[in-house]
Design a protein that fits this description.
This is Si:dkey-256h2.1. The chain has about 675 residues and is an alpha+beta fold. About 45% of the residues are buried. Bound molecules: 2-acetamido-2-deoxy-beta-D-glucopyranose (7 copies).
Length: about 675
Amino acid sequence: MARLYPAPLMLLFIARLASLQASSAAARVKLHLMHYADGEAREFTNTFKTTDQSINLRSSGHYGKDGKLGFDPGDAAPAFQIKTLAGEFVYPPAAGLKFSLIIHAYTNKSAFLECLWTSESSLTDLVEGFPNNSQALFVSYDDTAAADALWMREQIQRVATAQRRNDILARVHFSPLPVHELGNWIPSVLYSWSYSGLPQVVFTSPEWDMPLVAKRLDARYDWLMGRWGQKSFNLVGAGDGCKPSPAVAGAVAWLSEGNCSFFTKVRNMASSEASGILVYAGMGHPIQDMNCEGSECFTLLTIPASMVHAQPAVDLAIQTGKPVTVSFQTTTFPNFFMGIDQQGALAEMGLLIYPSFRFFNWQAQWFDFSERLRERLGVPVRDVTVLEDVVMQGDSGAVATVDLPSGMTDFNILELEASLSCPGKRDVTCPPWDHTVQLYVCCDHFSALCNQELGRWITAFHRGTGHWLTDVSPLIPLLNSGRCTFTMKTVPWAKPWVAGLRLRFSHTNHTGNQSDQLYPFSLMPLYTGGVFDKEYNKRFQPINFTVPLSTKKVEVYAVITGHGSDENGCGEFCVTSHHFLINGVHKNSRVFDSAGTALGCAMRAGEGAVPNEYGTWLYGRGGWCDGLQVDPWRTDITKQLNLTGPNSLIYFGLYQDKDPNPTSNPGNIIMSSYLVFYK
Ligand SMILES: *[C@@H]1O[C@H](CO)[C@@H](O)[C@H](O)[C@H]1NC(C)=O
Ligand SMILES: *[C@@H]1O[C@H](CO)[C@@H](O)[C@H](O)[C@H]1NC(C)=O
Ligand SMILES: *[C@@H]1O[C@H](CO)[C@@H](O)[C@H](O)[C@H]1NC(C)=O
Ligand SMILES: *[C@@H]1O[C@H](CO)[C@@H](O)[C@H](O)[C@H]1NC(C)=O
Ligand SMILES: *[C@@H]1O[C@H](CO)[C@@H](O)[C@H](O)[C@H]1NC(C)=O
Ligand SMILES: *[C@@H]1O[C@H](CO)[C@@H](O)[C@H](O)[C@H]1NC(C)=O
Ligand SMILES: *[C@@H]1O[C@H](CO)[C@@H](O)[C@H](O)[C@H]1NC(C)=O
């Protein structure tokens, strides 16, 4: 069944030119965000398949528990065994689990997968970066599965250094049987979790009986803004596209690869007013991931572009002056990827934004994170459940009032175990966007500490696996009575998330380290952020304070995130610095130096940043990442203080070591900060 791309609703894009300072010369920095007005992530996936289109599994006999078809993420993966090139893969292994498994079903009908398996950098990423605790099982949908298995193994062998070869080959398994001959439950998951499609070009010409349908790979979404709609276009040959060509105006340009960069071709054809371009690979060459390089990425181009294989029939028609028309479609196909975590639970793999095995690595790093988190959560502590599967939506958010354990002063460690899941089990039910989630607590309504911020997280764009444990021990003094009301909320227009929150109280054990034995007993709220414009720092006044008697340690505790986008990408994608100046001489600074880098947040999948989201989760940001807690910044200022006399403190925030001074659209800084006194 063929489906066309839905016409994008109003396409907004925000081009963010990163400060060059933020990027090493080698790092490509591309800061374009593509926002669709209806908030769906369809720029990447041609929409999820809806129930009425789901492939009928009745004949396969694979019903889950509850009589529902197929499996859900989180269900236990049934045992299976599969014949492989090396013998047999048995899951779970007799020796027990201890690894995560990624199952990938290949088809040569997908240009994306062709590129995934032929790109040198993609294969190298797998060989060099596939985490040690992970294994992969590769199968093929095609009747050529046996040859595909050998070919996939060769691709890996080809790029693996002698040093890496044995290790990687011991952890990847190749099935010579195609998916439709596996005879186990795996096809059921692949078919029922489908949201993949096969993007295709349809060529027609009056001379042909049948249209010619070819697989296509669209240019990197975060480079080229243009997307194909439902229209048909004339196809006009324009050689290698390395020079402008007036003949292509209003048509799709048909270009050979090579002789100049993809960028040059697109720019030339855009300046010739082409409606889009199709680059065909040289004979025997694979389809490539069309992308920009270096400074090219700073030029915005807005026509769509895709790569396809050479089409002799198209060339012949063009050479003989016959008209050729092209249109674009995406045909639904079963899923290509699924995961099984270290506990044997099925997991979705999210979106691979571009064809690279890096996305496997990030998912596997997150499985490792998830396993370590499970171990940490297994340590018994005094815990208090605040929210359990509570829907967080609207102005009020998710609210709960709970009694705290007695003897609060015994505890000097407070961790927040927070989770954000979705109304359904599948990511398809998860809200889009990376919104700030803030947790406020009020225990004593008459206290200045009522409704201060206790924790902050950022939602994962369209993925529901967020789960984090954050140490907020210095904020224990916010819990200044035995009964507290907790409010967790995000922007009121966000679609519903399902929130979980547990407080975990404990105390440091007696390892003899005196500074570990201290208890936070008093808290002084300091500054909140504001609009990051030229008035930003004028709003902050110095704060005078004295240190309470018997204080042993004083800390500044701050949670700071940058949002919005002025012409420098501030505060989300620009490098801002935040300073607390103590007694006029001691500067304590925090710099968001990964903001605006190409992979600043992707690198944090192993720390719990939800991988493979349906947005631009990869880029570094101002103090935060999509699908991650905001780490509190703590700095010990005891030695900077006069413990028996007056002290002063002031905060200021800078862009490029100066006051911010945007010309339009200033961003904003969301900050909560405290002085914490320990005894
Ligand atoms: C994949 O398909 C292309 C044409 O679309 C063909 O040239 C190539 O040989 C196929 N590769 C494999 C491994 O089957
Ligand atoms: C795998 O383990 C080796 C040795 O323990 C280590 O050097 C390497 O960095 C690890 N690789 C990954 C990708 O985790
Ligand atoms: C590259 O340029 C050369 C010289 O201009 C030309 O002969 C050749 O056809 C071009 N290659 C392609 C693939 O268009
Ligand atoms: C005490 O702390 C040390 C070091 O952090 C740890 O190794 C030990 O297991 C802890 N003991 C108890 C009883 O928690
Ligand atoms: C004691 O704990 C503090 C805070 O955790 C740490 O910075 C310091 O290095 C520790 N000292 C020793 C001797 O372990
Ligand atoms: C803080 O102290 C300084 C110097 O002692 C004084 O000039 C200033 O007025 C004080 N500010 C406030 C807000 O009390
Ligand atoms: C601390 O403040 C007291 C009271 O103003 C003063 O007498 C003392 O000299 C100060 N100590 C230092 C180290 O500045």
